[in-house]
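Input for the complex:
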Amino acid sequence: MVFIDACFRRPTPYTPIWMMRQAGRYLPEYMEVRAQAGNFLNLCHNPVLAAEVTLQPIRRFGMDAAILFSDILVVPNEMGMELEFIKGEGPNFPSPITTQADLDALHVESAAEKLEYVYETIRLVRADLESQTALIGFTGAPWTLATYMIEGHGTKTYAVVKKMIATQPQFMHALLEKLTHVIKGYLERQIEAGVNAVQIFDSWASALEEEAFFEFSWRYILEISEYIKAKYPHIPVILFPKGISGYLERVRAIGGNFDVFGVDWSTPIELAKAKLGDRYVLQGNMEPTRLYSKEATRKGVEHILHVMNNEGHIFNLGHGMLPDLEPENAAYLVDLVHSLSKR
Ligand code: 1CP
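Predicted:
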């Protein structure tokens, strides 16, 4: 698989590409299946429909990797937290974690098993996907999941979870340890079901100052990655901590056993290459809003491919696809990356 070869820095005929949130609301065929499922969470729980929407962008655009269709928040949901997706507002946990009793009530040993619908989706996708196309499994990072579990929903200030860090750091660590344990079992089972690579999304990494990022987020991510690499050295691990361009020096100094570093759009690709490019394969990092214009897309692609020079690179967006993007421009992007990077 071209994508897996690139993850391990083996020679490839061109630079592989996939897009974060490549399955989703910008595709009319996705909207149809979601309507059929009734709501978003039903779609995640239905392996036949989740497999279908995983495959939709591959059929249309021919990316080099599919990403399992699910959501990071199914994990806290199966740890016993009620979850709803409110139309137009996003995810909501009506009873966020506030007390020791809430923490003690979380299911830690059974959660990974309860996610069986995810593993069934993986088996169905893998059976249908062509052999040269990789399937990526994923999880949220402990820190990003913990922000939702403590705040209850998305936040701009992180006021509640940061107060927790300041006033009850041990409580925070206890929650992060539980999540780390569940996630190890979750990724292992995804791999046993057939994913060819895994990505850990730390979407809210940038909410933390440097000290706090390494204490409350990165160390747990590395612990998960080390665990997976020790057991499955042939499975690439991709880490995506969003918005931490100022901390790359320390990421490098600490090191860690993972294969690919996901570069978000706010980090200049030149900087990521200079700090990490000889140590980790880089994935990224076109600004997603460039996809509103073919001209801006072309300039973005040319710049990134020029800097990376066909080496140690997987093309991606620097964060997810936006719901109002034109599918036609996604097709343009995939074809452009494939043709301009041909060796
Ligand atoms: O209305 C809808 O159809 C729901 C929109 C939607 C979709 C398509 C949500 C709700 N989740 C998803 C799918 C999803 N989520 C995938 C599928 C695979 C793909 O990439 O194509 C993945 C990998 C995720 C991961 C995810 N969910 C993250 C991490 C990645 C990121 O974008 O930063 C986060 C933070 C979430 C939480 C979440 N779920 C959904 C929304 C709208 C959000 C974000 C809300 C917020 O900003 O707080």
